[in-house]
Structures are given as C-alpha cells and as structure tokens.
Write a structure and sequence with these properties.
430 residues; 30% helix; single chain; five-stranded antiparallel β-sheet; 13 helices; alpha+beta
Amino acid sequence: MNQAYVWPTHPRSIAAFAEFLEALEAQGAVLLEEGWLNGRTSHRIRCAEGHETTVHPQHIHYGGYACKVCSGLDPATCWASFRSTVEAKGGTVLESEWKGAGKRHLVRCAEGHVNPILPNLVQQGGGICKTCAGLDPRAAEAAFRARLAERGATLLESRYLGQHEHHKIQCSAGHLITQTPASVGAGHGCHICAGNYRGKGADEFYARLRELGAMLLETEWLGAGQPYRVICAKGHPCTARPNMLKRGAGICQICAGQDKATAEAEFRGRLAALGMTLLEPEYLGANKPHRAICAAGHECSPYPTALQQGRGGCQGCAHQVWDIFYVVTNQDAQRVKFGITSLDPRTRLTRHRSNGYRQVELLLEGLPGSMANDMERAVNADLRAAGIRPVKGREYYDISNLPAILHVAVNYGIPSGQGVLFDISEVRAA
C-alpha cells in the first residue's frame, strides 16, 4: 500500500482507493492528486504516454481506459479529429467550439448545403450532408413534387408527410390513389392505370365463373382468399376461392370426384354390390383402409380408392392374406432366410429348396391379423438395431444370425401350438 498518498479512514473508501490505484498502475498511469477525493469525483492523472487528463474512478472500475486522449475521448482530441474528418470530405465545420460527440454541429458540404451533423456518426463513416444523400426533408419534398409534375399528377395533401408516408394523389387519368414519395421515386406509377387495382381480382373471378357456367350466390366481394358459395354448371352446390380459381383449380368437388359425401356413397354402393359388410362406424376417407367382412365371411380391410379402380376388397379371397412366417437355412452357403407367405407354405418352401435352403428352422401357420407382417418387420428392425446388414436382398443373412432371428420370432407372442419344425425333405416337390 502506497503511504505517499493521503488515505481515507473508512474501510470501504480504503478498499476503493486501493483498487483505483491498482487499476491506474496496471495501465501505466500515475495519480496526480494528493489522495483519495471520493468515488464520485474525477481525479487528475498522467498516463503512460505523458498525457495529463482526468478520470472517474468508476470509469476505471468498469474496465475503461485511464487516459481520455489515448482512448479518443478527450474533448480537444475529438474536436480536432471531427474537423479533420469533415475537411477530408470537402466540408467545413461552422461551429466555433466543441459541443460533444452526441451533439449536432453545423457543417457546410462541398456543394454549399448546411446541415446539423452528429460527430460520432461522422467518425463511424457516415456522410456530412443529408441533402446530398437525399435525406433532407425539404430536398425530398421538392423532388417528390417535381416527379409528380413530370407525370401530370397532383398532390392532394396540404403538407408533405414524409418519405415513407402515404400521400393522396390524383394521377393524370384522374384516379384517386395513395403512394409514398419513396415509391414514386422508385418509379412506381398509378396502380389502377397499371391494372393492379384492388377490384381487379373480383372482376377476374366473376369472369371466370361466367366462363365455367357457374352461378355466384354471394352478394358482395369477401376477399381473394375467402370461400364463395357457388352452384356449378351441373347444379351442384359448392364453394370456390378466387385465388385457387386463378391458379387453375376447379370449383366443384363433386364433378371432380373429390366430394367426401359423394365418395362415401359410392364406396358403400360398391361394397353392397360385392356383398360386403362395412364394420366401421363412419367413413374414414378415400385412402384409408376400412374394416369389413366379404361375401365369403373373411375379415378384410378394403380401400375405397382400390374398389373404385375395380380391384377386389378381400385379400383372403385373392389369396393375398399373409398368415405364415418361416425361417429356412442354406447349410452349404451358410445363410439364413426368413419371410412370410399365405395359404399352403409348401409352394414357397419348395421354391427356396431349389435355391439350396433345405432346412426349415421355424414355420408358423395361421397367424391372426397382421402378426406375420409385424413379426417380419420386428426381426428386420432388431437386426438393423444391432448393426447387422443382409448379405443379399432384404431378408438373406449370414447363418450366424439364426439364433437372433429365432429369438425375436419365438418371443413375439406366437399362439400356442402353432410352431412347427421339420426337414424340407418332407416337403413334396412342386
């Protein structure tokens, strides 16, 4: 602790003075005062460069530089730098003294325009003349009025409102519009003359309805994105949106085959024609399977779209119900194959026999619902999770993975007594 200074007696002031001296020393500065004044008063110092200035203890406490001259905050230095920057840009500072970095100073540019300018903005690279930069309100107003006069337009406002404010204008064709000076300066003219008026969408919508032979039931314009009650040329009540119609969409879902009520009626009619009974309490949609019972008594899940395309609704009747899961191995190639099939498994197993897969490791028949499909997906997912990849196709693996495959299948929840193990030699040839 430096005893050359007059130290305060209060413990808190002693600590603050010691911290202040330590911060000055860290920057190579020396305190010129005899001692601590207080935490709210500036102290005279001499920096490492020899500049004598003043600094507030709190300024140092929060990490500021001790010397205003070195940090560019000295009033005399700032004043000289500001004048030098303005002169370098061809201007002249008209003030006789420094007002502060945040105070406006009158400056005359090389073109003779006089504007009040903030020194800190100039020091940050800003210009010195609002008029030359197009930011002077008087110059902007004059340019706005001149541009309107060139177009034969008339400004209806009693005063200039600003560069980005809408002004009432009458164009040369007599249309009453509103525009901003910035829009006019960018070359935009009367939107009505250009065919971009607000009512254009309504006119186009009405014309399109007439082309389609439709009748509009609404009595007023609701907006381009709103639905309008319409009766199509075939007499179907429907709705149409102007913006969708403009993009080429139709107006009648019934005529397009997209009406839900119509699709449901056709689906139920198709089921009745096939002798099928629908089990669902409600219509689920054209692309959703619906639980039903076919004429042969099989439980099935037909899709409305499939029925409408002429396909049958019962997989059992079409021999496409997958109710068998099997696992076979090729001992010579050291590979294992699993899969699903339907009805009599012997045909599928005989086909695998011709490819060397003679040993049947697991055969599960009569699995309910989608259990066979689910079991096949479960085995594939388990092998993928373990980082095991097939050696061929999707379901051919190295025979070392046989225990893992059997483990997933056997523990999947097989109905009691449905697992059958036997040698392929017992299967008759196709």
